Amino acid sequence: MQLLLTMSSIVAEAGLGKDIWTIPFDKITFILLIYFIDEPIYITVVSLTKISILCFYLRIFPDRNFRRAVYAVMVFTGLYMLAFILVSLFQCRPVDHAWKYWNHEHAGACNNVNAQGWAAAIFNIVLDIATIILPLRQLSKLAMNWKKKVQLMLMFGFGGFVTLVSILRLETLIYFAKSENFTWDVAPFGYWSTIEMDIGVMCACMPALHSLFKRIWPKVFGGTARDKLTGRSGTSGLSASLGADRSQRSHKNTDTKDFIPLMDVNSTEAQKEGSKRNDV
């Protein structure tokens, strides 16, 4: 992500977002070269972000059919990434025609870049939607308190916002391929792409951030002492539900051998303390 932000700063300094007639010729070629390099990086980032979220699903949900569905979405995401990286790299013949075509002084040919961009964006949106809706049925089975439900809603709300940004980004593609002033017209396409990647990474990090927030604001993100003893809320409730679901399937589902329940350390300590009290 830092590389992409650095490249965005460099290309902005070179003249992206300005009228093409105010930019030196060598800067125009440089902007197109940076954009050419940026395309496969963008595809890689959005794809790996989805795969990261899907790996998180595999970590907490042991259901065999659900895991098969997750693996299927992961495969399609990987194929999407590979296919469109290759299409982006070889969109023109010769390859350097992608950043030299603008002055009409070099021989070469390019694919329909507009159609290519639309196809990549549509596939990306479909995979986003699949990633968001995939765990909803599993989550509906869990017994959680209202705070945990709100936190999950916020997490998936971020995922929905990523999809919305992808849709808004589609509008900017209309002007890109046919533009005679692409340094001006491509600017919205660039910042929508950057926003999409940033929010996607934030969404993928939210499950891990929950542990940090729970330490900083335990009253908001943690359960009560009584809940920790009974395992009815917060992360304890989630772990208890998933752990019970796993124990019911462990004898007939060999796919759950890699399942790692998200156990709450505080909950475990509270349960041990409760056992000691009972023994006394």
Automatic annotation (TrEMBL):
Residues spanning the membrane: 41-58, 70-90, 118-140, 152-177, 189-209
Main location: membrane
Low complexity biased stretches: 232-244
Subcellular location: Membrane
Name of the protein in question: Rhodopsin domain-containing protein
UniProt keyword list: Membrane, Transmembrane, Transmembrane helix
Residue span(s) of domain Rhodopsin: 5-215
One GO cellular component, as annotated: membrane
Pfam entry (one): Fung_rhodopsin
Residue spans of biased composition, Basic and acidic residues class: 246-256
Disordered: region residues: 232-256
Bilayer topology term: Multi-pass membrane protein
Family: Belongs to the SAT4 family.
Lineage: superkingdom: Eukaryota
